[in-house]
Amino acid sequence: MLFRSKKWLAIVGILLVIALGAGLYAYKEYMRKPKTALEVETVFTLSPHDISKSFMDDEQKANKTYSGKAIAITGAISDMKTDENGNRTIIFSDSSLNMTIIASMDSTNNVKAAGLKSGDNICVKGFCVGFNKDELLGSDLQFNRCGITDKQ
């Protein structure tokens, strides 16, 4: 008798609708791809020297200012690297500060980066993820999920 009451059927129906909605939401979130740097508004546009200098002058302040934000770096490429999986990395150098900026390309931008070479002036946009200070070997500033916004 309990299973045949209209109240019980209404409760089961509502619970099924809630479970279905929660399942669809979870699936949508699981399948969502992270935005690339090119899809996010640029917070800062800097030269390799300017951003390098801000980290060398005051690392803590620079980390608070730039970490996790979409930053465009405009300058001449010092070097290009490709790993065994075909992922490309663009390197900017500032010899006056003994520092390199390492921009790991987003997989969707690897083809666009293939035609670049040392000395090309470009604008790379990516997320600042960290700074490794080493006075002996030189410091590194890391960017990931980068894309090329234009070639100058």
Ends distance: 78 Å
List SSEs in N-to-C order: HEHHEEEEHEE
Overall pLDDT, averaged? 86
Number of distinct beta strands: 7
Oligomer: single chain
Choose one word for the global shape: elongated
Would you write up a description of this structure?
- With 152 residues, the protein is α/β, with parallel strands linked by helices.
- Helix content is 32%, strand content 35%.
- It has helices at 6-31, 48-57, 59-66, 110-114, and strands at 44-46, 70-76, 79-82, 88-94, 99-105, 121-132, 139-151.
- The protein has a seven-stranded mixed sheet with strand order 1-2-6-7-5-4-3, with helices on both faces.
- A hairpin with a 4-residue loop joins β4 and β5.
- α2 (48-57) crosses α3 (59-66).
- The radius of gyration is 23 Å and the shape is elongated.
- The model has no long low-confidence stretch (mean pLDDT 86).
